[in-house]
Predict the structure.
Amino acid sequence: MNPTAARLFHRLKHLAPLAICTALFFSGAHFQKFSLLAADSKPTHYFDVNPYLQLGKSDNGSSVNVLWISKDPNKNGLLCSYKPTLSKDWKQCKQIETRSINGHPELTVFASTLTELPPGKSIDYSISKDNKVLFQSSFQSAPSAGSPLHFLVFGDCGKGSDGQAVLASRIKESNASLAVLPGDIVYPIGTMHFYKRHFFPYFNAEGNEEKGSPLMRSKIFVGCAGNHDVAEGGYLDARDLSTTPDSMSYFVLWDQPLNGPIAQAGNNTPNVVGTKGQIDDFLRAAGARYPRMANFSFNYGDAHFLVLDANRYMDWDDPGLRRWVEDNLKQAKTPWKFVVFHQPGFNSDMAHREEQRMRKLAEIFERTGVDICFSGHSHSYQRSMPLHFSPSTVSPNDHDARLGFVMGRFKLDKTFDGTLKTKPDGVIYIISGSGGAPLTPGHMEEDQSLWLPFTKKFACREYSFTSCKINGRKLSIEQIADDGSVLDRFVVSKD
Ligand SMILES: [Fe+2]
């Protein structure tokens, strides 16, 4: 090499790193994101909310949706894959849908559907970006007809309390594949802000955090909208987007069957208020889920679940709505039928005792063979005797009607004990609202003189959840406290 060429080579050698850095800088955001992810061994830096499982649009468990939230709105390079455990063949989800969260333009929800799932199998799934696996987990698909089903019920849960955290760790020990939340999912109201503070860190945690448990990656969570989710929540109103533009997250963060009777906002829907921009923002985020997803149904193994909106704005005297409920329950051919709604019609708690409007559907539940109704609202566990209720033709006075009183005649099955006599005459009403919000005062548990005559069990000294196991024509229920003790135990049989 001549001296001139040698000098040039020497200069270029020193300039090379600068040239490479310049090329990297101008190569665009995509490369920078890839570099960050590749260098980052913790996938949670990509996920603002970790992947969680939902029913999706399927009303028979044959498909499942996985959702996650990220600050990176880019879909390029993203892949959702799944396969039965032990199988080698990964299938790719056909598409990944995205939606921005109202009031949080920095956050994007991603949703992808795992279709044609074989029943009763362990299913592995993963989320990858740019060929790097960011997340992997597994869940149990819906059982086939005739196979055992284990599901949990707990409501009034997203408070951000220590009790909620302990309960979540207890729930983690359960091998149930499904968790049904009968409303008041998040306190004080269902905004994205409070989902991120009071709900996801407890039920969809990474697993190594002190306060939460990784439940939602392996159990399908089903939500029912309570008053704190989509209506009045104490001093706030969840429908008021002008105060909290990220309200009504129930309709954005949950993906559930859209087979309810109400497709348009109007009577019997939680109607939002706010500026045109705030309302448009919410409607765009919610899509077809609002308002239809307030009522829906699905089959899961041997069980049919009907989820109803019991909020104050609902008129369950409406003939069209009543017909829909009756037809839905009549057409269900599963051995077991459950109805889920937030505000209970039969409640001995001094709190909310007067809100009895769901009693108006009791006769339909009895006619169509409903086994159990699950509610929350009262921060306690309550079990009714099996009962029949006939609303009175005499209306309460205006004041009592406004409060929600529904007068009527009871027929109680006092012989059902859930151990020796397990065939109930009537519908059993369970309140499972001890999921994390401050509990009902403890004296209600001991002082039976305060209970209304239909109440068989009342527990409110511990946070607790309901464990339900179906095995053929036998249903075994336990109310399990946060310390693992069993607060109530009974069996319902059909033979
Ligand atoms: Fe409530």
